[in-house]
Design brief:
One of its GO terms (molecular function) is phosphate transmembrane transporter activity. This is Phosphate transporter. 79% of the residues lie in helices and 0% in strands. It has 421 residues and is mainly alpha-helical. The longest helix has 42 residues. It is elongated. The N and C termini lie close together (11 Å).
Length: 421
């Protein structure tokens, strides 16, 4: 308790610095995963992807990032175990932020698409075990989170598989693919907008003053989605399509239509990612800020300080802009050959899975969800369409991440203890 009383402001500033570093790592690694399909299909340039991420990642983090933050802050460890020693919880959360952030930046440097969720959860569990003991970890909730790492890629893979099958049935395997693309792609735009709007309006905007009933939320979501679909329909009809392009690359004009849709799904994916994964950076930071502000009191509900969500959003955007290119290449071109139509199916499936998880407060791995979706699209073309070697390397990096976060956090925790005591 003396550490909090004597160094409270310093602890919050250090936590904010390390939280920003963690958000930077998330931007470099996980956002690169999220935008990799758009860049890999050449629907967006890297510069365009960064601009979209700047807007929609920040919006997702600020408008819909609160639900998952509560799970990260209170759900993985039993905060009651730290009631008599809140200084250990504060130092542990700071250590977790630095450990996970350092690991993510290292992985991004080498182009490894790892899980930010694995990193921070491993770090939190690591310091909790050495500071209090195994009883400080809520293993039942931890087991549920681990289960979600298997379930969510499967869900996103299934959604992506059937989404792409529907595209094949309605558009590619028809006598007039281009006209059918013009007809059905606005409907896919409607679906994409609806997924985002339903969760955002109902879950995300309550803490910024907009309180809607279920009926009002649904009506507003449908209205916005119809507007998006109508605008897309007008834009698609206004584009010029050259039949000669199809002789150079089969279905080139159809893929051009889906390239327009990829911009919509990229926005959805960025928003979905910001709403879910910002919690990995600001959850521990929010815990530190609230404990210090209360003078060491743990427990009870606490509001997220106004400056924490923007800090996480800004860090994510800067991380993508400075270090995201290598991981984008791994995800966008390494797992399977992606075209705009395949990339759309993978992105919409991932966005739907991530936003639903964010709304229910379950911290999932965006990396694993996206890889599951890309695999689902690849499997729609047969197992030979998948690069199993790249998938094996990705899975190995996932396995390493959990213990790496724990080991780094334990080492940093002991260093912080020595510094502040």
């Amino acid at each position: 308790m003396d550490i909090i009383a004597n160094y409270g402001t310093t602890l919050v500033l250090v936590a904010a610095l390390f939280g920003f570093l963690m958000a930077w790592g998330i931007g470099a690694n996980d956002v690169a995963n999220a935008m990799g399909t758009s860049v890999g299909t050449k629907s967006l340039t890297i510069r365009q992807a960064i601009i979209i991420a700047m807007i929609f990642e920040f919006a997702g983090a600020y408008l819909a990032g609160g639900e998952v933050t509560a799970t990260i802050r209170n759900g993985i460890i039993d905060s009651n175990a730290f009631v008599d020693s809140p200084d250990l919880l504060v130092l542990g959360m700071i250590a977790s932020l630095l450990a996970a952030g350092a690991w993510l930046i290292l992985a991004s440097y080498f182009g490894w698409p790892v899980s930010t969720t694995h990193s921070i959860i491993g770090a939190i569990v690591g310091f909790a075990v050495v500071s209090i003991g195994p009883e400080a970890v809520q293993w039942s909730k931890f087991g549920g989170i681990v289960g979600s790492w298997v379930i969510t890629p499967a869900i996103s893979g299934i959604i992506a598989y059937f989404m792409f099958i529907s595209v094949q049935k309605l558009i590619f395997n028809t006598d007039d693919p281009l006209n059918n693309a013009k007809r059905y792609v606005p409907f896919y735009m409607f679906l994409t907008a609806l997924v985002i709007c339903l969760v955002t309006i109902k879950k995300g905007l309550t803490h910024v003053g907009l309180h809607l009933t279920d009926g009002e939320g649904i009506l507003l979501s449908v209205a916005i989605s119809i507007a998006v679909a109508f605008a897309g329909w007008i834009y698609i009809r206004g584009q010029k399509y050259n039949p000669q392009d199809d002789s150079k690359m089969h279905f080139a004009n159809v893929e051009k239509v889906f390239g327009i849709l990829m911009v919509i799904t990229a926005c959805a994916m960025a928003f979905a990612h910001g709403s879910n994964d910002v919690a990995n950076a600001i959850g521990p930071l929010s815990a530190v800020a609230s404990i210090v502000a209360s003078g060491g009191e743990i427990g009870g509900s606490s509001h997220i300080a106004w400056w924490i969500l923007p800090l996480g959003g800004i860090g994510i955007v800067i991380g993508l802009a400075t270090m995201g290119e290598k991981v984008m290449a791994t995800v966008g071109t390494g797992i399977t050959h992606l075209t705009p139509s395949r990339g759309f199916a993978a992105q919409l499936a991932t966005a739907a899975t991530v936003v639903i998880a964010s709304g229910t407060g379950l911290p999932i791995s965006t990396t694993q969800t996206l890889v599951g979706a890309v695999m689902g699209v690849g499997l729609a073309r047969g197992i030979a369409a998948l690069n199993l070697g790249v998938l094996r390397n990705i899975v190995v990096s996932w396995i390493i991440t959990l213990p790496a976060g724990a080991i780094l956090a334990i080492a940093i925790f002991y260093v912080l203890q020595a510094c502040f005591s």
